[in-house]
Amino acid sequence: MGREIWYINDLPLRINSISEPILYADDTGVIISSISFEYFCSVSNLVLSHKIKWFAANKLSLYLDKMNITKFIQGIHHILHYVLVTK
């Protein structure tokens, strides 16, 4: 009889209040909406801190050298949306 391994990703529960997580296969993207780059830096540091702890607790690797940040500007009010993608 074979064994089944179930993997439940509860990472969004830790970062939902400060960002919008996007999960796809082995990628974890995070959308952080901000009106300033300083706020983005503050929130992204907090999100990365949670991700590093979560990955370590689940014995997974987080490759920060494969991290990408993409900036989008929306509307006339220039609301900034930054997408932080890690593998």
Shape: elongated
Q: Ends: how far apart?
A: 33 Å
Range of helix content: 25-40%
Number of strands: 4
The assembly state of the depicted protein chains is single chain
What fraction of residues sit in β-strands? 25-35%
**What class would the helix/strand composition place it in?**
alpha+beta
Number of helices: 2
Largest sheet, in brief, is:
4 strands, antiparallel
Low-confidence stretches: none
Overall mean confidence score, pLDDT: 77
Q: Compute the CA-based radius of gyration.
A: 15 Å
Q: H/E series, N to C?
A: HEEHEE
Strand order of the largest sheet: 1-2-4-3
Structure, explained:
- With 87 residues, this protein is an alpha+beta fold.
- The chain has a domain at 37-87.
- It is built from two helices and four strands; from the N terminus they run H-E-E-H-E-E.
- The chain has helices at 11-15, 37-57, and strands spanning 20-24, 27-34, 68-74, 79-86.
- The longest helix is centred in the middle third of the chain and has 21 residues, at 37-57.
- The radius of gyration is 15 Å and the shape is elongated.
